[in-house]
Amino acid sequence: MKEIAKKVKLSKPFDVDKIIIKRDRYFPSAYIIDLPLDSIPDHIWQDIFERTWKSSRHLWDRKLFVIGDKLRLVTTADEFGDKLDWIEQVIKETNKGIDEYDRMVQKEEMQRQTLWEEKARVERMRDALRRTFAPI
Fold first, then answer.
1. Is cis: bond before 28, omega within 30 of 0?
2. How much is the mean pLDDT over the chain?
3. How many CB atoms sit inside 10 A of residue 27's CB?
4. What's the rounded Cα separation, in Å, for the pair 65 and 63?
5. Virtual torsion, Cα 110, 116, 119, 125, nearest 10 deg
6. What is the CA radius of gyration of the chain?
7. DSSP string, 64-88
8. What does the pLDDT average to over 40-46?
């Protein structure tokens, strides 16, 4: 049985002074910024998030990671503002994907329940036949 997934968003408001911004040692002109999420995303959210941002028309660079309850962004100072807007859009699209996934899970569960109820109904009918026409 599939599980219902939870939406995740940036934790707002947050104390900007507590956000660690440091230079990336591999890319000298880039910075690493860990943005707080409101919870630790489950594997379903992470999978949808990963597919969403990688299929985005803004493939500047692929330096966005979920690490626990943080979203790690690696970017240059010049692109930082644009990337913040882009990240919020990606999160919004991811949560739409979660809504679609959850609807599918609920529909499958309803179908499974209907099938189980149908099987139970048929078995009760068979039991009635056995009681009525049991061999002597």
1. no
2. 91
3. 14
4. 7
5. -90
6. 24
7. EEEETTEEEEEEETTTHHHHHHHHH
8. 96
Q: Counting Cβ atoms within 10 Å, is residue 10 exposed (0-12), middle (13-18) or buried (19+)?
A: middle
Instruction: Render pLDDT for 66-123 as a digit per residue (tens, 0 to 9).
Output: 999 999 999 999 988 888 988 999 999 999 999 999 999 999 999 999 999 999 999 9
**Residue among 68, 55, 62 at smallest CA distance from 83:** 62
* DSSP symbol at 3: P
Q: Is the pLDDT of residue 60 over 70?
A: no
Strands of 21-23's sheet, edge to edge?
A: 21-23, 30-36, 70-76, 64-67
Show contacts of 42-48: CB within 8 Å, 24+ apart: 42/3, 42/5, 42/6, 44/3, 44/5, 44/98, 44/101, 45/5, 45/6, 45/7, 45/8, 45/94, 45/98, 48/5, 48/94, 48/97, 48/98, 48/101
25 token code pair: 């040692």
pTM: 0.80
pLDDT tier at 58, thresholds 50, 70, 90: low
